[in-house]
Amino acid sequence: MQIAIDGPASAGKSTVAKIIANKLAYIYVDTGAMYRACTVIAKQNQLAFSDEAGILAAIDHDGIELKSEAGQQKVYVAGQDVTKEIRTPSISANVSEVSALPGVRKKMVSLQRQMAGSMDIVMDGRDIGTTVLPRAEIKIFLVATARARAERRVLDLKTQGIKSTKTVTEIEADIAARDYKDSHRLVSPLQKATDAIEIDTTDLSIDEVVEIILEKITAAQKKLVKKS
């Protein structure tokens, strides 16, 4: 079974997807982390975030690896752990530009589909249900107000020990700007798949969101059993 979880920044995709994958013993893939890794590669190689050819060459040279270590997904670039670096404000501010590059998206989508293969998988991102896994049995689209997402981002940064000089209001503005960029890019824009289930997480706890999704998955599994 393929489970696609999409939505804008800080809507809770990764947190929820990790829990779902763990409960079902499915493989988890955070596609957003892959684009963030591409942005780290651009930064480390002192490339302009619009330099598609340069970034693609650097990706081929440095390589991106996703590894599961002690139940956590780790991201490696050129053999170095960049799991913490990909969440820093400087990377967050530029990942939309890098992820909008057609060549970068084509390369990452190809890798993501290879990872999906024939395994039971939970994959989260912004174009999973529409582009990467259009035939996924379950498609979820998480949303939340920009303010709620900004507050979550501040909490996440504190939890990770990452300092931010921006206020919640400034982060809210950054998130709104990223929403616009992601939903207006020419290649694989952020959008809800026509057959996706939308869940507003603004006033829901993580456990409540997980419970709702698990119920949808159980219903889908029963339908698959009947068809077989």
Largest sheet: 5 strands, parallel
The overall pLDDT, averaged over residues, is 92
Number of domains: 1
DSSP E strands, number = 8
Kindly name the structural category: alpha/beta
Name some characteristics of this structure:
single chain, 228 residues, alpha/beta, Rossmann fold, 5-stranded parallel sheet, 3-stranded antiparallel sheet, globular
Mind explaining what this structure looks like?
By secondary structure, the chain is of the alpha/beta class. The chain has one domain: 3-Layer(aba) Sandwich (Rossmann fold). It contains 10 helices and 8 strands. It has helices spanning 13-24, 31-44, 52-62, 89-92, 95-99, 102-116, 128-132, 146-159, 168-184, 206-227, and strands spanning 2-6, 27-30, 64-69, 72-77, 80-81, 121-125, 138-143, 197-200. A hairpin with a 2-residue loop joins strand 3 (64-69) and strand 4 (72-77). Helices cover 52% and strands 17% of the residues. The protein has a 5-stranded parallel sheet, sandwiched between helices. The mean pLDDT is 92.
